[in-house]
Input
Amino acid sequence: MKSFAQNLIQLRRQYNMTQEQLANKLNISSQAVSKWETGQSLPDIIVLPKIADIFRTSIDSLISHSLKHNPSTQYEEFYRSQNYYWGITPNHLCYEILKLKPPIKPWRLLDIGCGEGKDAVFFARNGYQVDAFDITKTGLDKAKKLASFYNVQVNFFQADINSFRPNTQYDIIFSSGVLHYLKPDLKEQIIHNYKHHTAENGLNVFNVFIDKPFLPPAPDEETPHTLWYSGELAALYHDWYFHQFYENIFDCISNNIPHKHCMNTIIAEKVCS
Ligand SMILES: C[S@@+](CC[C@H](N)C(=O)[O-])C[C@H]1O[C@@H](n2cnc3c(N)ncnc32)[C@H](O)[C@@H]1O
Output
């Protein structure tokens, strides 16, 4: 009861929503919301999925103990400086998306783990309708600054990849260098959920870090994370059309220490019969 109340307060604040606004969305009185938040009562079981939907989270996360300890990453610190840790040049995959889904209409795009927003802002500048989330507040603050510098709208919000569930269909779901933060037991379910929330002929464009025994761990690797195996991501998309799938090893100097990463990249299209 206590954890639900704390989770609800945290989510409502995160979404900048008053008790009354939440109550209106649920078609109930604001007193009812107030009672949930003070732990005097719990919502009816039929209302729980609606609350999860509003806050784009799972019912499990709503009632679990973990949400109140907002999980953090080292990036929260890295993003604190004035400079953009990842720069502001968009990822090369953004141009691949532009070629495959040119913005002839405002395609709905989700950027998962958007960091400081370079890619999300690039898409918005090119006419896409962008939702983007990250777990770090410092990253999102800088992302919002970048969007306002370019005078574009992006719906940035704070969320954890492990509890976030889309509540709408997207034409493009994109994520670069983030999916190793998925908990191993949730990976398959969450990828399945992204596929489900992709519109017909929509794209999923992801790159993931790959475990190679001959490569030493990267110096800025943090726990908890789980690298992927070669081909693992491709297997989850066996029923989609692959525009691209490849593996590469590249040099990186994040944290000012030269090291190497291995990645699998996939650009897959949901083709319906
Ligand atoms: C390697 S960075 C990539 C950032 C961005 N996609 C880019 O390419 O510039 C990984 C990002 O994942 C975010 N992240 C880490 N754990 C996360 C989680 N559990 N949920 C959502 N984002 C997370 C970090 O804050 C960081 O911004």
Notes: The chain has a mean pLDDT of 91. The chain is about 35% helix and 20% strand. The CA atoms of residues 105 and 127 lie 8 Å apart.
